[in-house]
Design goal:
Length: 227
């Protein structure tokens, strides 16, 4: 089932997004076993993303052959476990985290590739910079020498109003395009999960994070403990 889901999804993405950009498919591997993840990689997945640092570290050696993403909320006391091991951090959502990433990355002689998280729906339950402060946040974060900003990340609210969601997607693409004009490193707009990725791609997302669509229903996650 996993292999077929991967092949079908990759075929759907082969034409790129509305802007003609290639789309990076990140397999969201929360609660998935190394065996399941390796099956997805064997079927063509090149990028995998974990939501939890504990799972990231536990599975690291058992999974090979894919770029590693961290796609969940990142606590400052867990940053040290990703240094030198993560190809792209999607959730740079606050200055406190940027300070810790800079400190740890500089000490290791490493540069952290990051996406700046934008709270596109202005939801109290989600972190991230507001759409109104996105450009200033990117400008501020460019000053950190060991952080390389590679684009933006956003999660759409849960809503049945498709026009509202489409407007948010298009707004996010506008913010991305504006910043991209002045930043040669900006390549990724990570927006879209299993329930909304088609809409996001239509509106200009070029990186999507799919879990259920590839692996099937998620298992109940075990409680996270400190690695």
């Amino acid at each position: 089932m996993i292999a077929e889901n991967v092949r079908q999804t990759l075929a759907q993405l082969a034409g790129g997004n509305a802007q003609g950009e290639p789309i990076t498919l990140v397999a969201a591997t929360k609660t998935r076993t190394p065996e399941e993840i390796n099956a997805a990689i064997a079927a063509g997945i090149t990028d995998i993303g974990e939501n939890r640092v504990q799972e990231f570290t536990q599975k690291f050696d058992a999974v090979q052959g894919a770029r590693r993403h961290f796609i969940g909320h990142l606590q400052t006391n867990k940053v040290k476990y990703l240094i030198g091991k993560c190809d792209l951090i999607h959730s740079l959502d606050r200055y406190e985290l940027a300070n810790e990433l800079q400190k740890r990355a500089a000490a290791a002689g490493w540069v952290a590739n990051c996406l700046v998280e934008i709270n596109i729906g202005s939801e109290l339950s989600k972190s991230g910079f507001s759409p109104e402060t996105a450009e200033k946040a990117v400008q501020d974060l460019r000053a950190y020498p060991n952080l390389r900003l590679c684009g933006l990340m956003a999660m759409l609210p849960i809503s049945e109003d498709s026009e509202y969601l489409r407007a948010l997607c298009l707004s996010m693409r506008d913010i991305y395009d504006t910043i991209k004009k002045t930043d040669k490193n900006f390549r990724f707009l990570s927006m879209g999960m299993s329930g909304d990725w088609q809409l996001c791609v239509e509106c200009g997302s070029n990186m999507i994070r799919l879990g259920t669509a590839l692996f099937g229903p998620r298992r109940s996650p075990a409680a996270e403990s400190r690695p």
